[in-house]
Amino acid sequence: MAKLGKRSKAAREAFAGKENISVEEALELIKSNASAKFDETVEIAMNLGVDPRHADQMVRGVVTLPNGTGKSVRVAVFARGPKADEAKEAGADIVGAEDLMETIQAGKIEFDRCIATPDMMPIVGRLGKILGPRNLMPNPKVGTVTMDVAEAVKGAKGGQVQFKVEKAGVIHAGVGKVSFEPAKLAENVRAFVDAVSRAKPSGAKGAYLKKVSLSSTMGPGVSVDVTSATQG
Q1: What span, in angstroms and rounded, lies between the C-alpha atoms of 154 and 117?
Q2: Long-range contacts: 7-15, Cβ < 8 Å, 24+?
Q3: I need a surface site. Which of 51, 53, 175, 213 has the fewest CB within 10 A?
Q4: Please, what's the b/e burial string for 114-130 (b: 16 or more CB within 10 A of its CB; e: otherwise)?
Q5: Percentage of the chain surpassing pLDDT 70?
Q6: What is the CATH number of domain 75-157?
Q7: What whole-number distance in Å separates Cα of residue 147 and Cα of residue 187?
Q8: Which pLDDT band holds residue 36 (cuts at 50, 70, 90)?
Q9: DSSP 8-class letter at 147
Q10: pLDDT tens, 78-119?
Q11: How far apart are CA 126 and CA 209, in angstroms?
Q12: What does the pLDDT look like over 54-65, one tens digit per residue?
């Protein structure tokens, strides 16, 4: 077993015995124990009462965090003609069609979000095995297959976070940076939890929000009282 460093040990001791605390208490604990040399991301993990192997229990969606993510997002857009121009003007980092497909097939993926106009999907569809596992495949359900590419690019750059439940019924996401003010982080956390709550699928039975935990990139996690996470 790996030996814990002094900072990791101190953080674990600070977190010991703390569970099901309020969002504000959890964020104060995380901020005061984040000791990495970079601005760590505050991460949320939600355990949901769903089995995503069943289509009627899949949870996915998108939320715009009120205070942004603090992260610089690189956006690629599949578009031609005027729509390609719109994407560039809106701030897209990479815009193309067949040329972009070939770049991705060659293993060069220099973006965090991929957007496409509907007419580009026959091209984008060939990249399913590459983009799918990386959660980069454009999808109309989260607004990344759209004719309004300018709005989609601005959203991606302005604090939008996509979420999709994993096999074990867990959703992970970043909801800001440790350097954010506590009130702004708390607002982001509750906005994210609210979006996941509203995305409750028709097939979900029993308790839907089972557990909510917060952590920093390098720090231990702490469970948050679900009621605190759903009420401002």
Answers
A1: 15
A2: 7/35, 11/35, 11/219, 11/220, 12/220, 15/219, 15/220, 15/222
A3: 53
A4: bbbbeebeebbeebeee
A5: 92
A6: 3.40.50.790
A7: 31
A8: confident
A9: S
A10: 999 999 999 999 999 999 999 999 999 999 999 999 999 999
A11: 36
A12: 999 999 999 999
- Sorted by where each begins, the domain ranges of the chain are 18-69+160-230, 75-157
Interatomic CA distance for residues 213 and 201, integer angstroms: 21
How many CB atoms are located within 10 Å of the residue 180 CB? 21
CA-closest candidate to residue 47, choices 231, 201, 228, 193 = 193
- pLDDT of res. 172: 95
- The amino acid present at 193, given as its one-letter code, is V
Superfamily name and number for 18-69+160-230? Ribosomal protein L1/L10, rRNA-binding domain (3.30.190.20)
Q: Model-level pTM greater than 0.70?
A: yes
**Model pLDDT, residue 2:** 46
78 in Cβ contact with 97 (< 8 Å): yes
Helix ranges restricted to H, 34-179: 81-90, 98-105, 121-124, 128-131, 149-157
Q: Are 162 and 172 in contact (CB under 8 A)?
A: no
pLDDT of residue 167: 87
- Cβ count within 10 A of residue 176: 27
